[in-house]
Amino acid sequence: MKNSAPHKVLFVVFPQIKLLDLAGPLQVFADAVDDNGIAVYRTEVVSIDGQYVKTDTPVSIATEAMKSWANEQIDTLIVVGGNGARAAALNPHVVDGVLRLAEKADRIASVCTGAFVLAACGLLDGRRAVTHWQSCDALSREHPCVLVETDPIYVKAENVWTSAGVTAGIDMALAMVAEDIGRTASLSLARELVSYVVRPGGQSQFSSTLDRQILDETGRFESLHEWIANNIDKDLRVDVLAERANMSPRNFARLYTQQTGRTPAKAVEGIRMEAARRSLEESDLSVSEVARQCGFGDDERMRRSFIRLLHVSPSDYRQRFATGHMTASGDLLGTQ
């Protein structure tokens, strides 16, 4: 950090914010201390009128008025998201207030749909940005000058950061702490918060496991998916899976595709990819060993899957996302 004075972090809220969009990142900054146990950040919450602001829960938030910060230098300005974000983005008083604060901020950010407010201010024009996956299309449609990414947990574009939905705001805040006072302090803070600090921004905001559960609404193949995940290094051709499901290969392939919207082969590849990504992030195994243990057979076959599905090689993926190589860059696939 530039000096020993507390780094000022200002959160902008409005009616019907999502409480966790505020509470998660706020807790990260509030708990951050230096080697002497002294608070690194000074956190404040502001709104247009400085009154209590209703959230999407029974909890209301005490705030200061934006105008009280008119002459203050701000280190980090964060606009929170929630159901009220779209209305806030259309409110000229909110937009003007955020713009005035942004002029005095060294770092600007949004959590979840707070990106709509930054976009309305023109602060995302020409920049890569992300929001909750359900709102990415709307953000792109309503603000065509914004380069919307649909997949990352968070994106850093110069001094402007945006995060995906809800808990991704915690990941973004931890990355900011790492940038400010070092990765060791961020890791320590994450352990204290029982958080997963090593989720770099380029990692997907989608859960492959949850995705399978959603596609398989009846849960018919849930036990099969679990068995595949526990046997990814085995022969997982259709006839093997069909036998496991007590079905004929032809009937199994037809019903599985009909039920989940993907072929058994694509499902197996997805589960193997998920395991390979986790291994590359968390282990010191060679790429060839990861490929073998995850059932790809050889590293070239795994490389082709990574290039096709993630647009990056396994080696590059490890370099950018491995626990020991955490970066605060936050751009898609770790690039800036």
TrEMBL record:
Pfam families referenced in this protein's UniProt entry, alphabetically: DJ-1_PfpI (PF01965), HTH_18 (PF12833)
TM regions (residue ranges): none
Listed SUPFAM superfamilies: Class I glutamine amidotransferase-like (SSF52317), Homeodomain-like (SSF46689)
Domain named HTH araC/xylS-type: residues: 222-320
Superkingdom, taxonomy of origin: Bacteria
Gene Ontology MF annotations: DNA-binding transcription factor activity; sequence-specific DNA binding
Keywords associated with the record: Transcription, Transcription regulation
PROSITE patterns given in the database record: HTH_ARAC_FAMILY_2
Name assigned to this protein: Transcriptional regulator GlxA family with amidase domain
Species annotation: Roseibium marinum
Species lineage: Bacteria, Pseudomonadati, Pseudomonadota, Alphaproteobacteria, Hyphomicrobiales
